[in-house]
Amino acid sequence: MGQHSIGEVLGQVAVGRLITRLIARDHLPHALLLEGIPGCGRRTFATAMAQAILCLAPCAGDSCGECASCRLIRSDSHPDLVATLHDSVAGQVGVDVVRDEIVEAAYASPLVSARRVFILPGIERWSVAASNTLLKVLEEPPAAVRFIATTAQATAVLRTIQSRCQLYRLQPLSAGDVERILIAGGIAAPTAHARAVLSVGSHRGLWQDTQEIPLEPLLSLAREGYRSAVVADVLSCLPTGLSETVAAQGLTLAAEQRRIVRTWLSALTHELRNDLRLGDLRAQQAADRIVRIGALHGDLARNLNPRLVIEAIGLGETERLLRSSGL
Ligand SMILES: [Zn+2]
Fold first, then answer.
1. Sign for the pseudo-dihedral over CA of 147, 152, 155, 156
2. pTM
């Protein structure tokens, strides 16, 4: 993911304004705790904050994106930003790592910028020993240092750490923002839309290409009507068995198939919306199709067989064509 200014981080406008105001007035606390659900953009926001803090030509508390410091952040090589610890290993952060890479390093002088920034992800999962080691530097932080810790749940962070950090909350992402983030990350628009519709405040788990959406045959059914070969083509993309991860969630094959067809219908609707921009009759047809697919969403919710739903995408069109030709 590319680097952003704070103002460019999607879905965190309110907390972004608060932070840039603090940076502009040089009132940013020495230690901050960013709380947010996994996948809401904690790392992106923390990095944007670091970029703003370290920027050599900040504007209204946000980074310029162009100075030597901003360029170093973009190439992931800023010597005054320490963000080596990864969220995934937060549970195994050792005392020696905290002592050498954070506490010791905090007393080093900045090289490029006026400050040094440490990003500490998943701090609620640090061991008590590791947390206590950090505490030594949190109690009397060097003037030039800013710590940005992130957590899924602030109340799970060791109390002594909590009490030395100012807490800021990141918001769950809207489906629209999840869609924009996925598209910016290179996911095709219809797929991004289909996945975002089912998201719950987070882009986590939505990046893997777990499932190919048979968009071409679906569009062909919607626009040109029912043909059994095309229906078969679409149905061949449905899983016929359960993956281990899905089975572990206690889902049945039918439920998983309905879930997948729901994402297909969302992708199809997204694509048909493009037709609304065409003039005249085609826009009207697209509007009708979108309404019809909306109704099929309801049919799926009432446990209608996925095959019947796929067939119905084309059947409505055939009936309509027959009617309009007076047969
Ligand atoms: Zn800059």
1. negative
2. 0.68
Mean pLDDT by 10 residues, the chain (327 residues): 80 96 96 94 94 96 96 90 72 83 92 95 91 93 95 94 96 94 86 86 76 85 90 86 69 82 87 82 86 86 84 77 57
- Is the distance from CB of 73 to CB of 5 less than 8 angstroms? no
Separation of alpha carbons 76 and 83, rounded Å: 10
What backbone torsions phi and psi does residue 112 show, to the nearest 5 degrees? -110, -45
Residues 6+ apart with CB under 8 A from 175: 196, 197, 199
Q: Rounded to whole angstroms, how far apart are CA atoms 289 and 273? A: 10
CA of 52 to the centre of ligand 1 (A): 7
Q: What is the CA(49)–ligand 1 centre distance, in A? A: 12
Q: How far is the centre of ligand 1, averaged over its atoms, from the C-alpha of 72 (Å)?
A: 9
CA of 66 to the centre of ligand 1 (A): 5
CA distance 8 to 191: 23
Ligand 1 centroid to 313 CA: how many Å? 52
Sheet holding 116-120, edge to edge: 81-82, 116-120, 145-151, 31-35, 166-169
Burial of 172 (0-12, 13-18, 19+ CB in 10 A): middle
CB 276 within 8 A of CB 287: yes
- Give the contacts of 48 (CB within 8 A, at least 6 positions apart): 3, 4, 5, 6, 8, 9, 16, 63
**CATH class assigned to 6-172:** alpha beta
Q: How far is the CA of 112 from the centre of ligand 1 (A)?
A: 11
Helix (H) or strand (E) holding 280: helix 280-301
CB contact set of 245 (below 8 Å; sequence gap of 6+): none
The alpha carbon of 100 and the centre of ligand 1 are apart by a number of angstroms equal to 28
Sequence spans of domains, the chain? 6-172, 211-324
| CA 183 to ligand 1 centroid distance, Å | 26
